[in-house]
Every structure is written in structure tokens, then in C-alpha cells.
Amino acid sequence: MTAEYYIQVVIAHTIGAVYGVLFVLSMVYRCIRHPFKFFNEETNKKKRDVMPTCLNDPTLGTHGFIHLENVKLHYVSNGDEKKPLMLLIHGFPEFWYSWRFQLRAFAKDYRVVAIDQRGYSESEKPEGYKSYSLDKLVGDIKQLIPALGHRSAVVVGHDWGGAIAWSFAMKHQDMVEKLIVLNCPHPSTFRAHLRKSFDQFKKSWYMFFFQMPYLPEYMLTRDDFKSISIMFTGRSGGVKVGSLSDDDVEAYKYAFSQPGGFTGPVNFYRSGMKSKNVFETNVPKIQKPTLIVWGCQDMALSQELPALAKKYVTNLTIKYIQEASHWVQFDTPDIVNEHMREFLEEAN
Fold first, then answer.
1. What average pLDDT is seen over the chain?
2. Mind telling me the catalytic residues?
3. Cα–Cα distance between 247 and 242 in angstroms, integer?
4. Bridge partners, 67 (sequence order)
5. What is the dihedral of CA 210, 214, 218, 220, to 10 degrees?
6. Separation of alpha carbons 38 and 33, rounded Å
7. Three-state DSSP state, 92
8. Which of 43, 172, 253, 267 is the most buried (most CB within 10 A)?
9. Is-above-0.90 flag for pTM?
């Protein structure tokens, strides 16, 4: 396993270097072909000193900070603190605001808390990729739940937040009441699928590219964070028209325009590729009721992946939403919330 681990790391960095060279060449080509446009794109970034008003919407809850052992996290909480805890963990490139529809929808029955993960938005941004290991990210959740005054929670994760939710449920089942994962495969299924599926390999190109220093951050921030608009609203993989307003897109750009805005998030991938955890297949089977909600128009993940989790979960429900993108929780929020509510009621 050790030899395989090092081989995989070398392969990942080699592929990443190839993508890095291609990206540099494409930038050189654009600069030569349209020099004035190229340099205007670099100099015309909007200054974002004022938080968009949508991030201070009182119907979403109250903002707070919590000091854990090695990091300070920002969160938004909605609902009575005496109610059971529902913890919402976002993915990439997102922040607490991706859960705005769930913060409102479940506040009647739960204390709903949406966090900014370490490295994101208003949370602290530790330096170095080693600060973003899966063990540290899972450790944040382990510390966070009791720090919020609870013993356990309904744990909900999307994308990278889903990977952390999966891992947390495997390691700390006593702290999980129910598990809900949106568009994230079980970690023990993804590596094997990536190796045998060329389609998934193509979709995962960015994971390799993100192993490069500096270039991913440059790509993601250039042309006034155009990458954010493309990922969320582009024709290929974006949300349905009307699901995301201009103000919503501006909120994401504001969050990632803060100092070090993209370095921490990219470090999730840098650390993840170097983690031996991705090679674990002999993992504890999750005994807690688990729901996977999957947007089938996902540009990054294969629709085959959810069913592979059956091997690792004793009580699994899968709900597919054919018209939804990867950003399922705010692309089709009413359908997602209905699936969540039905699952939570049945599991009680």
C-alpha cells in the first residue's frame, strides 16, 4: 500500500503539471493575441470592501464565531438553541450562504447551523496544505458540535462538505443522529471508480491541476472571478436560470475576494491527494440512517457513484433529481428540502 500511495501521488502531480503547462500556454496565447484585453482583465478587478446585503439577511439567522482548538470558525445559526442541531457543511467553491434555503426551511424544528469551513470566507485560514488534512477537517466537526452545546447532530454535507460528513460519520457515529449527503460519493468508492472510469477521470481534471502551486489561485481569481460565474451559471454544469441572482453571484465573489480567499479551499485538494485516507476501503460501516440526494446534471461527478455507497451503509436511501446540477441544494431547493424532510420524519 505504501508503494501504491507514492505512485498515485507522483501520477497526480505529473498530470497536474501537464495541465499546468497547458494553462500557462493558453495564457501566453491569449496575451499575444489580445494583449490589451488580457491586461485589462487583470487590472479591472472590482474592489469589494462592503459585504453584500444578502449576507446580512436576518431571516437566515445570526452570525457568530467559535474558537476551536486550532482554528476560529464563522457560522450562521437559525432556530431555537434548545432544538436538535442540524449542522450544514459546504463544499467547493462555496461558503455558508449555499445553505440559505435550508437555514430557513428547517429552523422551525432544528437549530440549523451553517459553517464556513477553515480556509473559507470569514473563518480562519491556516497556512500550508497540511492544515487541511481530512483528519483536521473531521476534527473541527468533532470539536464544533459540543462547542455549540450539543452532543450530536443531523450532519448534512455537500461536495467537500459531504466527504467530511462521510468521514465524520465513520469515525464518530455516536455524534451523528442522521447523515445527509448531497452530490458527494462515499470516499472509499471514489478512488476505485476514478481508476476504472475514463469519464470520471476527465471530469476530475481540476483535482490534478489544483496540485500545482499558484496557478489554480490565479485561474480562479482572474478576470474578476469569472470562474465563479462560469461554475454556478454557465451552460455546462451551472444552475437553472433563475436559481441564482446577480446578488447571489456577487456574494460568492465577495467571499473569495478576501485575502487568501482561494488558497485555503484549493489546499483541501492539495492535502486530499496526498492523504493515505483515500486508500482506505476497510472502513467502519455506517449504521446511522443515511440519505444521499444527487443532482444528475453534475459536471464533476458520475451518476454511477451514489449506488456504490450501499456497500458501506446499512440503512441507505438515495434520491435522484434528474434536472438538478451539482449545486443541488440551491438549484432545486424545494425538492431537496422535501426529500430531507421526508427522510428525517421517517427516520425518527
1. 91
2. 159, 269, 326
3. 12
4. 72
5. 30
6. 9
7. coil
8. 267
9. yes
Query: φ and ψ at 86, to 5 degrees?
Result: -115, 115
According to the model, what pLDDT value does residue 30 have?
81
The three-class DSSP label of residue 143 is helix
- List the end-to-end C-alpha distance of the chain, in Å, as a whole number: 41
Q: How confident is the model at residue 249 (pLDDT cuts 50, 70, 90)?
A: very high
Which segments within 36-190 are labelled E, that is strand? 62-67, 72-78, 85-89, 111-115, 153-158, 176-182
CB 169 within 8 A of CB 283: no
**Residue 141 near residue 169, CB atoms below 8 Å:** no
* Phi, psi (rounded to 5 degrees) for 263: -65, -50
316's enclosing H/E stretch is strand 316-325
Of 34, 86, 128, 119, residue with least CA distance to 329? 86
Nearest to 275 by CA among 156, 190, 213, 202: 190
Beta bridge partners of 320: 294
Q: Which helix (H) or strand (E) holds 251?
A: helix 246-257
Bridge-based pairing of strands 85-89 and 290-297 is unpaired
Report yes or no: 129 and 217 within 8 Å, Cβ to Cβ: no
The candidate with the shortest Cα–Cα distance to 207, out of 24, 16, 17, is 16
Per-residue pLDDT tens for 64-82? 999 999 999 999 999 999 9
* The C-alpha cell that represents 8 in the structure block: 498515485
What 3-state DSSP class applies to 94? coil
The predicted pLDDT at position 296 comes to: 96
> Quick one: cell of 135?
483528519
